[in-house]
Amino acid sequence: MSTPESQLSILLDDPGRSALLSDIDGTLCRIVDRPENARVPAKATKSLDVLCERLGLVACVTGRPALVGRSMVGAEGVTYFGNHGLELLRPGDEQPEIRLDSEQVDRAARFIADNDSPVWVEAKIRLEDKGPIQALHWRGAGPRTEALVRQIADHAIAVDLTAHWGRKVLELRPPDMEGKAGAVERLLAANGFETVVFAGDDKTDLEAVRRLQEMRDMGQIPNLLVVAVGSSEGPEELFERADVLVTESDEWIALIARLAAHDA
Among residues 173, 189, 212, which one ends one of the domains? Predict the structure, then answer.
């Protein structure tokens, strides 16, 4: 029986035409109550640095702003697709390329400025300014807070923003945003990669997995391996679609560390 480690080794069969894609929060680091306190272990950074030298592409596809993602991960050779695909930060770039019409950039922030209330603070809603995306976190708060967040979401939808739900977080996004699905397709479609490994844990990662599996079924990705990081808060469909299921981010990091050490 093949092991997760041996399955990941397909990336090394033809490394120049192989791509490793990973989410950050919940995948390369543990979910914490306050997003600013999340830390990617040095073991992950070191492994990704090594794999950048061996593989055709190593990328982090994250809901964080791209510069924040790079700061968290610390691997300079990684390509960062931030804000669920709105920002592309290539190795060596100082600033990300923004993939959004200028009139949409401040739309969610204006909604927050117009509607923020002391009631939100009392309900323990924490705001995260991600530029074009505005996030409302309520991890650690109760059902009443979640009910308030859902009211905020309904109001945002009424003014033509998109409400996207994650693990104890609501993201208010510009309309017609493809998210991680569009990000992974843009990363891979024009580059002729034969083998792709993708790892994630959340609903936004499920969108990427669906798109990748569509690309595989159309013959655009001959070899695809999906890794899901298990969580009671994660979407069941992601776990059902995965080829490899790990129980926590530390286990995923251990797998890429062993991959980086393979035949070293």
Answer: 173
Host domain of residue 20: 4-99+179-261
DSSP the chain: ---HHHHHGGGGTSGGGEEEEE-SBTTTB---SSGGG----HHHHHHHHHHHHHSSEEEEE-SS-HHHHHHHH--TTSEEEEGGGTEEE-TT-SSPEE-S-GGGTTHHHHHHHHH--HHHHHTT-EEEEETTEEEEE-TT--HHHHHHHHHHHHHHHHTTPEEEEETTEEEEE-TT--THHHHHHHHHTTTT-SEEEEEE-SHHHHHHHHHHHHHHHTTS-SEEEEEEE--TTS-HHHHHH-SEEESSHHHHHHHHHHHHHTT-
Where among 156, 173, 190 does a domain terminate?
Answer: 173
pLDDT tens, per residue, the chain with 264 residues: 467 777 999 999 999 999 999 999 999 998 887 878 889 999 999 999 999 999 999 999 998 889 999 999 999 999 999 988 888 999 999 999 877 666 677 888 889 999 998 999 999 999 988 888 898 999 888 899 999 999 999 999 998 888 888 878 898 988 877 788 888 988 887 778 999 999 999 888 998 999 999 999 999 999 999 999 987 777 899 999 999 999 999 999 999 999 999 865
